[in-house]
Amino acid sequence: MGIRSLVRGCGAYLPERIVTNDELAARLDTSDAWIVQRTGIRQRHIAAEGETTSDLATHAAERALEAASLAGADLDLIVLATATPDHTFPATAANVQARLGMRRGAAFDVQAVCTGFIYALSVADNAIRAGQAKRALVIGAETFSRILDWNDRGTCVLFGDGAGALVLEAVPDDGGLARGILSTHLHSDGTGYRLLYVDGGPSTTGLAGHLRMEGREIFRHAVARLAEVVDEALTANRLDAGAVDWLVPHQANLRIIDAMRKRLGLPTEKVVITIDRHANTSAASVPLALAEASADGRIRPGQLVLMEAMGGGLTWGAALARW
Ligand code: UT7
């Protein structure tokens, strides 16, 4: 009998300050109507001065641990997905580990930008299945506001700050449709490196840099690659789209989310949407949506949850879980 990772609890944290589209339109050549029509975004949360990715991550992690009735000392692994770490090194996860009172096991970051949470979930799930960890914390946390060019209307209106976290626990796999993470599917294609990147870093400019994106190209890739990877996830588990109770997509553009929903033939009621309030929070978007929909009772134990994301790299991936 093998081992599977059961989701024990979720948590989320959003910075207090909300910035509306109208506030951006007051100082940029854009409008609430354009942003809503093209993206579905109405507002975003922005971290306060001095509030860091590890701050957001620690708050989300504390809430996930509370939901799981566990303490930091019960964990033996933290995998934190971020493209906006506090420092070049050590890993932001190390800071979170210390603040949670976890003094053993391992804590490290993974970097797959907007697909980061799916990558982190896959790494943690594999560690649990391999018997390397019994209880793992998976976090997606970002402060994209720090790497945006606030004069570029093509990018700065799209992103927000936030964090989400999941606690996974090893349980015996009794076969069939047992609860837990069913499978994860990761992909990357580095030939798309320049389509979505930050024009800085320790080894190039020495500065943090700003996000640059070929929006239309990314959009095109997202629709095609996400369709492939959700099919791959369903096929691997011999499941039809009709079996999906909840689609929890990366929240980059409501039009991309809707294309996936239609392809799967799901009604809008089965899709968890946060983009209107959170904008694109990169690696935090899927766990933020999971935390929201499990806290308000939408996602219930035993239900089938399909997660997907696509981002810089290019990277893309999907995960299926029986909640
Ligand atoms: O999370 C990682 C993955 N990221 C994504 O998935 C993002 C994918 N891309 C997108 O979501 C969309 O491409 C955008 C939302 C970024 C842009 O939407 P679009 O429908 O592809 O617009 P566009 O880039 O083709 O631009 C259309 C027009 C342009 O003007 P012209 O050249 O037609 O005169 C832009 O200059 O809209 C203009 N525009 C804006 N206008 C008002 C671009 N940004 C803005 C803005 N406000 N903020």
Mind explaining what this structure looks like?
- By secondary structure, the chain is α/β, with parallel strands linked by helices.
- The protein has 10 helices and 13 strands.
- It has 2 domains: 2-173, 3-Layer(aba) Sandwich (Peroxisomal Thiolase, Chain A, domain 1); 180-322, 3-Layer(aba) Sandwich (Peroxisomal Thiolase, Chain A, domain 1).
- Strands 1-7-6-4-5 form a 5-stranded mixed sheet, sandwiched between helices.
- It binds oxa(dethia)-CoA (UT7).
- Residues 30, 34-35, 38-39, 114, 153-154, 157-158, 215-216, 218-219, 222, 252-253, 256, 280, 310-311 line the site of oxa(dethia)-CoA.
What's this, in brief?
It contains ten helices and 13 strands.
List the helices and strands and how they pair.
Elements (H helix, E strand, L loop, with lengths): L2 E11 L3 E4 H5 L6 H8 L3 E4 L6 H15 L9 E5 L10 H8 L6 E5 L5 H14 L5 E9 L9 H4 L4 E12 L7 E9 L7 E3 L12 E3 L1 H22 L9 E4 L4 H11 L10 H4 L6 H11 L8 E8 L3 E8 L1
Parallel strand pairs: 4-5, 4-6, 11-12
Antiparallel strand pairs: 1-7, 2-3, 6-7, 8-13, 9-10, 12-13
Helix pairs in contact: 3-4, 7-8
Oxa(dethia)-CoA binds next to helix 2, helix 6, helix 7 and strand 12.
Globally, the shape reads: globular
The assigned structural class equals alpha/beta
CATH architecture of the largest domain: 3-Layer(aba) Sandwich
Number of domains: 2
The proportion of residues in beta strands is 25-35%
The quaternary organization reads as single chain
Low-pLDDT parts are: none
Bound molecules: oxa(dethia)-CoA
Q: Under CATH, the topology of the largest domain is which?
A: Peroxisomal Thiolase, Chain A, domain 1
CATH superfamily of the largest domain: Thiolase/Chalcone synthase
Mean pLDDT: 97
* Portion of residues within helices: 25-40%
Ends distance: 20 Å
The total of helices stands at: 10
The major beta sheet can be summarized as: 5 strands, mixed
**Biggest sheet: strands side by side, in what order?**
1-7-6-4-5
SSE string, helix = H, strand = E? EEHHEHEHEHEHEEEEHEHHHEE
Q: What is the top-level CATH class of the largest domain?
A: Alpha Beta
